[in-house]
Specification:
The protein is an all-alpha fold and 430 residues long. The chain is built from 17 helices and no strands.
Amino acid sequence: MVPILGALVLQAAYGAVDLLVVGRFGTTSGLSAVSTGSQVLNLVTFVITQFAMGITVLIARYIGEKKPQYIGSLIGGSTLFFAIISAVLFVIMIGFSRPIAVLMQAPEEAVGLTSVYVRICGAGIFFIVAYNLLAAIFRGLGDSRSPLLFVAVACVVNIAGDLILVAGLHLDAAGAAMATVFAQAVSVVFALFLLVKRQLPFVITKKDFKINGHCVRALKIGFPLALQECLTQISFLALCAFVNRLGLEASSGYGVACKIVNFAMLIPSSLMQSMASFVSQNVGAGNEKRAKKAMFTGMGIGLAIGCVVFALVLLKGNLLTGIFTTDAAVVQNGFDYLKGFALETIVTAVLFSMIGYFNGHDKTVWVMVQGLVQTLLIRLPLAYYMSIRPDASLMKIGFAAPAATIFGILLNIIYYVWMNLAGKRKSKEI
């Protein structure tokens, strides 16, 4: 978990540094553009990450079952599939960048800059997809340290790029986007270098680069997660659009708050990712007791850290938002959102530990269903209702997230009990 957490911290630093540098050396319109544009980029990145989760789980399963000879075909077929996905995203993000900015209801002053940000990120989408595919391969092999190394290199490159392009050349949101893409390119080159140099328990040949049964199996595992993540991120885009209607300062404040939220969610996210690989290997080896112990241990760790983060976000959120901008109105708007969101830092630890456990068991269809139910029935309707009230505020909109998560925990407890009862009945029949 710890190396995965380190990699996620550094990856979150990409967007945080972009926002910080633009907030300090750019314009308010540029800040809003990076805020809105990064929501679009998050949609793409998180969906790709969830698709790649199928590769992580299946590699771990093959290792647990002592069938490493299947891994080469899995990686070859998956590489071809993700190359096709990259090409489609390239066309969409470059050809429709302005309609995307308008659809996001970016403030009028920031539409042009948002369009530029999305277009530049679209041009580098191949590197962004390749990074997430390579990280999934390493984690499936049980190596969570290598992704930490190549994302660390990329983070340093991104910081240098932001300082040169935004602070030095005053390219505003466009400079931030270029720095991000270049940093991802460097990380991919470094990751490939590490992969080639290490001794692998499998061999990849030219004939592996085709859509095959192992690739299809991984996609079946990853598709429900990707679909759920896609619709969830679309709901976040809708939430961003709700907030954008409240004005430029609210839009910028929400963008700043989201960067802090990204950091606050790193512990639960690292628990979920490490849990999936760990549980999958133990399920493959027939050690279900150890898999369950991992889930409850993850909950305990997450809750302990979550309480500390909760207090920091709720009581000192204005100091956190003040790191990114000196605009008092933007700082206050960001703090308001964090007040409503704060409880999420505690309850997500429980939810994500359960999700990691279910992913490790290939129960990705259930993970998709519960995610869509809590998003479409609770988070999105509640956020919309709060945004159209006469006394609409970012604090009330922010509360929609923990409300949906608490509902999701209840759903997952019911499913966990049902799954265990079904497992006991099956054992008795055998």
